[in-house]
Design the sequence.
């Protein structure tokens, strides 16, 4: 599963730590999600999409090997 | 969205400060354990074997306290890693309960001697190793 969190962060000009603080998780969790090592829960994905003012689908996309 | 109901599914862990209590217990039991091993000291009229069992019990409690305590920043990824570590320790417990007696029969060990405590220590060490390793590699 790929994601556009890094791009969304760049648009808002915020660091991983700042995003982590906003969402109530650790910086390590944001780093793991961003690099695709951890797939977040629906709740966290929705919180993220609300924060970036977009949809979950716009941030997270399934890849061929996910199906 | 109201996510308060989702929070009810979370693991009930002890507050972070209990990590230090657990660590202190491990250090103290290690010191007392070595003292018992090296000397003929006896407390409250207890035999050496009784004291050993008691010290190992407290050592296990120390390991458990560290395992069942929240991290500084406990979140869903840590909870996920925790569940993987619990699963690994569960498999270790089953494997060791099957293999330990076989090894003892094969190599002439004292059959049935402190199996319970040993298995719990294996399980807790597997938990700590898995949790630490996954935390390092995922973060």
Sequence:
């Amino acid at each position: 599963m790929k994601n556009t969190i890094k791009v969304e962060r760049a648009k808002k000009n915020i660091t991983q730590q700042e995003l982590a603080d906003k969402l109530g998780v650790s910086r390590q969790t944001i780093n793991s999600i961003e690099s695709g090592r951890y797939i977040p829960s629906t709740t966290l994905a929705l919180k993220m999409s609300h924060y970036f003012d977009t949809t979950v689908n716009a941030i997270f996309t399934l890849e061929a090997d996910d199906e | 969205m109201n996510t308060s109901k989702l929070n009810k599914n979370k693991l009930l862990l002890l507050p972070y400060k209990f990590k230090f209590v657990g660590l202190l217990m491990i250090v103290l039991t290690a010191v007392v354990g070595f003292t018992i091993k090296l000397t003929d000291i006896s407390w409250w009229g207890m035999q050496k074997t009784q004291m050993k069992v008691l010290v190992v019990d407290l050592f296990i409690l120390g390991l458990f306290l560290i395992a069942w305590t929240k991290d500084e920043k406990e979140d869903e990824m840590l909870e996920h890693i925790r569940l993987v570590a619990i699963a690994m320790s569960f498999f270790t417990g089953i494997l060791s309960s099957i293999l330990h007696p076989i090894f003892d029969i094969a190599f002439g060990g004292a059959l049935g001697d402190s199996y319970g405590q040993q298995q719990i220590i294996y399980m807790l060490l597997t938990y700590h190793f898995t949790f630490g390793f996954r935390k390092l590699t995922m973060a």
